[in-house]
Amino acid sequence: MAESLYDQFFEVVKKYPKYTAIRFEKKKWSYKKTDKLILECERKLTSLGIKKGDVLTVALPNCPYSIFLFYAINKKGAISYNIHPLTPSETIEEMMDKVSSKTLICLSLNAKEASEKLAQDKKIITINPYLGASPLKRAFVRCKAKKCSRATNFAFVKKAKKIEPIIINKEDDAVYLNTGGTNGAPKVVRMSNRAINHVGANSYQLIGGPYQSIRILTAIPLFHVFGLEMGVHTPLSFGGQSVLMLRFHTKEAIAHMRSGRSTVLLGVPSLYNALLSRDSFYGKHLRKQVTAFIGGDTVPESLLNRWNQAMVKYGSDARLYEGYGLTEAGVAIVSTKGRSKKGSIGTPLPGIKVKILDIETHKEVENGKLGEIAIGGPSVMSGYFKDDKLNKEDLIDIDGVRYFLTKDYGYCDKDGYGYFKQRMRRIVKINGETLCPSDVEDAVLTLEDVFDAYCYGVPNKRKGAAFRLIVVKRDGDHPKTEEQVKELINEKINSLLPPSYLPEKIFFVSRLPRTPIGKVDSKE
User: Fold this and answer.
1) Domains in the chain, please, with CATH?
2) What is the pTM of this model?
3) H helices of 357-481, where?
């Protein structure tokens, strides 16, 4: 296996230099051209004084230079700390101080605000997201960006004439990512070259087909492990294409699909719901699709059925497959064609081990029994940044293999298929029974009149706890009243689940709050 992320990418450059690597807007870059721009970025980083081990905080959306810089930083032996491009400057300062980062790479539009908040010992490097792409949009951004004398425009940085060779080890830190905080406060995860390379090198088999027919629509950002590993590093590890979107727009995504520019989709449930809600999504162009993957949140069976029925109707072999992963363990378990079961998140990637452990004792439980999902193998993080206490709690050794305790509740069957039930912190005990709110959500989302739903537990003196349900009604030509929908919801839950699952209250909202990648934001 290659030592660095760049090494793995460069092996493909040597094999398929003329293949398309990246698409953005209406432009595309071959592997050879992409590599040339990565080397130019490396020379510019050298002239800026970047050395091996330096941490560069990168606050960019999915644009060509976010990719070129990602591999250039890695080739320098430095560490890319990927954060949300719209993170407030005060928070960026705290994040940078936490990981001892002295360089921020951000959008030119955000440079002025960053310069007013960041300490003077920090460098600010700016990127126009349309650099190398649309001249008109690049000019628009340049006009809109406020002047900032403190910031350095990366486009005008001189390239160093000499590059010293750097020895990079596969166990070196390559990327820092913040956890989503869905299992508590966000933490900084250290990911090695080996961890990311393992997913990239072993994910082609999830898709299959001619390399250049695999054009992955990458709307999930690089500060999320799913976008980083599956959207970018996986296709660029075998000769596929990464089709970049600055941010997800339903109309633009459908245009990519209709034209064939995108043949593989990655997303969370809200992304697929958005596509299925548009009439323009449907048609014979769906035959161009190869496959699609969904994860990052509880996936209703009704959503999988709606997607797959649309594909069957229009003659496409593509299906929507559920997967499972975390920032700390990477993409770990995935369903694929020929390796899927109803309700399952799939089987582990090659080299990845999955165990279901008793929550109290951490002893492995028998097949079919619920417990905590533990992920082991080369894709697991090196650890949380400077947090020995948490590393000891969340990383354990079983038979010489290091496992990450996910704090997720699930089970495995006798054939090795995994089943995700619930984030453990969302599990609710009602009348002494351990119940999963996702079971309520799954039941409710089978109703045509329900567009979205979120269930949660609250204290209850009589039962210990009780469910409450938040619902987004589906609009249509003849929408039902809230009372009518409530009645349908209670009937559906009664028909599918025991009485303990009935929510004590049902609320209606126009939309559910979501995180930047589309998960339901439970904190809101």
Assistant:
1) 23-190 (3.40.50.980), 198-375+414-422 (3.40.50.12780), 428-508 (3.30.300.30)
2) 0.85
3) 388-394, 437-444
